[in-house]
Write a structure and sequence with these properties.
Elements (H helix, E strand, L loop, with lengths): L5 H20 L6 H22 L5 H21 L5 H26 L6 H28 L13 H21 L6 H19 L7 H23 L2 H24 L4 H6 L7 H7 L11 H9 L3 E6 L1 H6 L2 H13 L3 E6 L9 H8 L7 E3 H4 L8 E5 L8 H4 L18 E6 L19 E5 L2 H13 L2
Parallel strand pairs: 1-2, 1-4, 2-3, 4-5, 5-6
Helix pairs in contact: 1-2, 1-9, 2-3, 4-5, 4-8, 5-6, 5-7, 5-8, 6-7, 8-9, 12-18, 14-18
Length: 464
């Protein structure tokens, strides 16, 4: 292997530093855009360095790939709605896993047995993890896009099938490593096919309510696959960038599991959302008796409150009501009402989903309270306004032991003096369970599309 020029090493160090700084600034909504731009510059530095390092050999292929990828990314950025951001994240994450898989396929095809031990181990691991991440992310995308059901898909003997597929992967992978790549092409194809199949089987039994955790886990898989690909190609920038993604994805997965008070094994194998709604409903008093309210009644309650806590959920995202919510908050604040937002860590379909939507509507960052900061505020809150958040406000998590979400930390909205829930209907949330909050005496329902309902509240408050 030829020694790389010093300027290439410097370019890699600069790119790596920009990636790390970008991630650091992404930790706060106030600096996230700047962090994203730093990471973009770092990627640009790395790309230019790689093109220059080829000395004109194959540079056009790299440039063509960058142009095509940039065009696709630009189209997605301009056309994909904020409500579809989780799907886009899942799809792009799958593309990263597929890229690692393709690198391994090409390296295996170009290698001459016996392939050095470090390289063949890296190739096999990168191929397996990349394939699993790619196919698993596609299934996550289809679930989030509602092309297929978001409920867990299970069948008799599922764990046995998964175990057999995993055993096939271990066997074929071990054979390839032991023979240092000197195996029939059918074994290579079988390994890749089994890894792709495992990704599908891995995500199918996971319910849509757990998709935020799954997305972050698959993201960490992709990072690990890219880091291993860096060993294959002997490029430090891939090793460092992949390690950063893998580590951050792993930490985020752990944090999400902690926010739900559920171990990762329960998320992956518990079939959360497969049912249990009937048991939860029965344990919480059977059929729900709810009372509805008019927009005028709710507007009066909000306008004459001292403190209002807005609790956004996926219903707000679907209706694209974030700008209307900001307009309502502006009207209330003009009347001297204190308005805050309570954000649950797993509200929406991906980590930080609600923060992204509200930031787009220019909601001040200090007004966004995480769960730990928001819960002490509810006992002194006059009105908790829930906009499409079901499972993260469900008090069954505290006291209904038969509920699938029992033990999950929730937003204590029921402790507010009054609770107003904006919903289209009485359908259960994404977890597939009923919410006894709706039949509490201090709760009222405002039925209808979230955006139309909030716009109606804005008009009603103006008219007071």
């Amino acid at each position: 292997m030829t020694e790389l020029p010093i300027w290439f090493d410097i370019a890699q160090i600069v790119a790596i530093a920009l990636f790390i700084l970008g991630l650091r600034y992404l930790s706060s909504p106030a600096t996230a855009r700047f962090g994203n731009r730093l990471a973009m510059v770092g990627m640009g530095v790395a790309l230019i360095a790689f093109i220059a390092e080829t000395h004109g050999i194959g540079w056009w292929a790299i440039a063509l790939g960058a142009i095509i990828g940039s065009a696709i990314g630009l189209v997605f950025a301009l056309r994909v709605k904020m409500t579809a951001m989780p799907q886009m994240v899942a799809l792009f994450n799958g593309a990263g896993g597929a890229a690692a898989l393709c690198i391994s396929v090409i390296e295996i095809g170009a290698g001459q047995p016996p392939i050095p031990w470090l390289i063949i181990v890296s190739l096999v691991l990168s191929a397996i993890i990349g394939a699993l991440s790619a196919s698993g992310s596609i299934i996550a995308f289809l679930k989030l896009q509602e092309v297929m059901t978001g409920r867990p898909i299970t069948y008799p003997g599922q764990q046995i099938v998964n175990a057999l597929v995993l055993l096939c992967i271990v066997g074929l992978g071990g054979w390839m490593i032991a023979m240092q790549g000197d195996v029939p092409i059918g074994a290579v194809i079988g390994l890749f096919a089994a890894a792709l199949a495992l990704g599908v089987l891995f995500v199918l039994p996971i319910g849509g309510a757990d998709m935020p955790v799954v997305i972050s886990l698959l993201n960490s898989f992709t990072g690990v696959a890219v880091a291993i690909a860096g060993f294959e190609l002997s490029h430090e920038i891939l090793i460092v960038a992949g390690t950063i993604v893998g580590a951050s994805g792993t930490l985020l997965t752990i944090m999400m599991g902690k926010a739900m008070n559920r171990p990762l094994s329960n998320v992956l194998f518990g079939a959360f959302g497969s049912g249990g709604g009937g048991e939860a409903a029965a344990a919480s008093g059977g059929p729900q008796n709810v009372r509805s309210a008019s927009a005028d009644d709710v507007a009066t309650m909000l306008a004459f409150a001292s403190k209002v806590m807005i609790v956004p959920g996926y219903g707000m995202a679907v209706a694209q009501a974030q700008h209307s919510v900001k307009a309502l908050a502006d009207q209330l604040e003009a009347r001297g009402v204190e308005v805050k937002y309570a954000i649950h860590p797993v509200a929406g379909r991906m980590p930080g989903h609600m923060n992204v939507l509200l930031a787009e509507a220019n909601v001040p960052y200090p007004s966004l309270l995480d769960m730990d900061d928001a819960n002490p505020e509810f006992p002194t809150t006059d009105v908790a306004l829930i906009i499409g958040a079901n499972d993260v406000t469900n008090p069954a998590a505290r006291n209904v032991t038969s509920s699938p979400i029992y033990g999950m930390p929730i937003l204590d909205v029921d402790k507010a003096h009054n609770v107003i829930v904006l919903k289209r209907s009485m359908r259960s949330g994404f977890a597939g369970i009923d919410n006894p909050l709706y039949e509490l005496p201090n709760t009222a329902m405002l039925f209808g599309d979230a955006k139309a309902s909030v716009d109606g509240l804005v008009s009603a408050v103006k008219g007071l």
